[in-house]
Specification:
Bound molecules: zinc ion
Mean pLDDT: 92
Structural class: alpha/beta
Oligomer: single chain
Number of helices: 14
Low-confidence stretches: none
Strand content: 15-25%
Strand order of the largest sheet: 2-3-1-4-5-6-9-10-11
Shape: globular
Largest sheet: 9 strands, mixed
Radius of gyration: 21 Å
């Protein structure tokens, strides 16, 4: 590395360590920020010499990054930001902290994909899904798809691994002209892909297939797909997938991680034991015992991920917590995009800064609930046994803090 980059790396690591020591989080944002101030090309310098995979999408990118990093650990050390920030400051910090590694798997915020592709020259880019998320400040889904399409167009050398079930992703990936490895991870949420991004015609669906009625855009044949409790690889071989992470959604994330790992020459039979070691991801899916209750934490940040959380939650008492602080987006109108009816069959408790917004939504949706003022009150309000907790971003962090920052 050039001297300037070496100095920037060293200062970046020191700043991150100081920030951690001062109790201000993991320091990855400030460390990366200072490093990039000293050397604007620091991310490129740190990435060079590593085989890099980038993982992006509205939902599932943290978990998929964690699973893909676990799979790649079969062939060497892996730098990853799966516990940290997903913008260039976070990537810079993660690579500086990891030191020399042959591989890197980086979760990338959808908006920064083009910039991070330019800087890191990845071998593989995995595109998971696109759906509405904080529309009060984020881009519309069709605009994000266009950004991705443009980001890939200039990089024919990048191998793309993309979700065949999401029309927006398929359109973004196909525009790149390179060969795409398609995986099928399912798409529970369809509300952001009823209109073809190519021609504006309606998209029709039938039993997992989809096609545009007015142009050639249609679902490609998937090379990797979920079948029963396993994954079928491109050769047609079925592999049982044993995960500690719950739900059909995570089976899809595992299929994606296997497809990414295969691009690095790691076979499913080699990757699968590593996937099975992942028990939780930065608190997500973590289970904690408290006063005889087994508390499980599920993060849900936007309408599509709430639907996925309902799928993962057992039929047990469920605490919902919603905040609307800066990282959550200040607008809670998205609550009306979510159908809460699946919760009608279980006791529901609500809490959080915006519990009353949630209360109105549940009332409209015909879901009985009880309001509690704190996490502790929720624990006392349910019988011993499982308590599912579904919370949006800062609400999740609040509850995680009460549980001593469980990982
Ligand atoms: Zn069309």
């Amino acid at each position: 590395m050039p001297l300037r980059a070496k100095v920037a790396t060293s200062v970046s690591k020191t700043a991150a360590a100081l920030s951690r020591a001062a109790g201000r989080g993991d320091g990855s944002v400030i460390g990366g920020w200072i490093g990039l101030k000293i050397d604007p090309d620091l991310l490129a310098h740190l990435a060079s010499g590593r085989a890099v995979a980038l993982i992006s999408g509205t939902n599932g990118k943290t978990t998929t990054t964690r699973l893909a990093a676990a799979a790649l650990s079969h062939i060497g050390r892996v730098a990853t930001n799966s516990f940290g920030a997903n913008m260039p400051t976070g990537h810079t910090s993660a690579l500086a902290k990891a030191g020399v590694t042959p591989f890197a798997v980086l979760e990338v915020d959808e908006h920064y994909l083009a910039r991070v592709i330019d800087a890191t020259r990845p071998r593989v880019v995995a595109l998971l899904n696109l759906s509405r998320d904080q529309l009060d400040r984020a881009k519309e889904v069709a605009m994000m798809a266009q950004l991705w399409r443009d980001a890939l167009a200039g990089h024919p050398e990048v191998r793309v691994v993309a979700n065949a079930d999401d029309p927006m992703v398929v359109w973004a990936a196909e525009g790149s002209g390179q060969q795409v490895t398609w995986f099928s991870a399912g798409q529970r949420w369809h509300d952001d892909s009823f209109v073809c991004p190519q021609s504006g015609h309606p998209i029709e669906r039938n039993a997992g297939d989809w096609w545009c009625v007015g142009c050639p855009l249609r679902r490609p044949q998937a090379h990797w797909r979920v079948e029963d409790d396993g994954v079928v690889d491109p050769r047609g071989d079925w592999h049982l997938v044993k995960l500690q992470l719950p739900g059909q959604v995570n089976l899809g994330n595992a299929a994606t991680a296997l497809a990414v790992a295969a691009e690095f020459g790691v076979r499913p039979i080699e990757a699968l034991p590593h996937l099975a070691t992942v028990a939780s991801v930065a608190g997500r899916y973590a289970q904690v015992d408290r006063d005889g209750r087994n508390v499980r934490l599920l993060l849900a940040k936007n309408p599509a991920s709430w639907l996925e959380a309902f799928d993962m939650a057992e039929q047990a008492p469920t605490l919902l917590s919603v905040n609307a602080r800066d990282p959550d987006g200040l607008d809670t109108s998205w609550l009306y995009d979510v159908n809460f009816a699946p919760l009608r069959d279980r006791p529901v408790l609500i809490t959080g800064d915006r519990a009353y917004d949630l209360a109105v939504r549940l009332e409209v949706n015909g879901v009985p609930f009880r309001h509690v003022m704190s996490f502790d009150e929720a624990i006392q309000a349910v019988p011993p046994g499982r308590l599912e907790v579904i919370a949006n971003y800062t609400a999740f962090q609040d509850i995680r803090a009460e549980l001593d920052r469980v990982n």
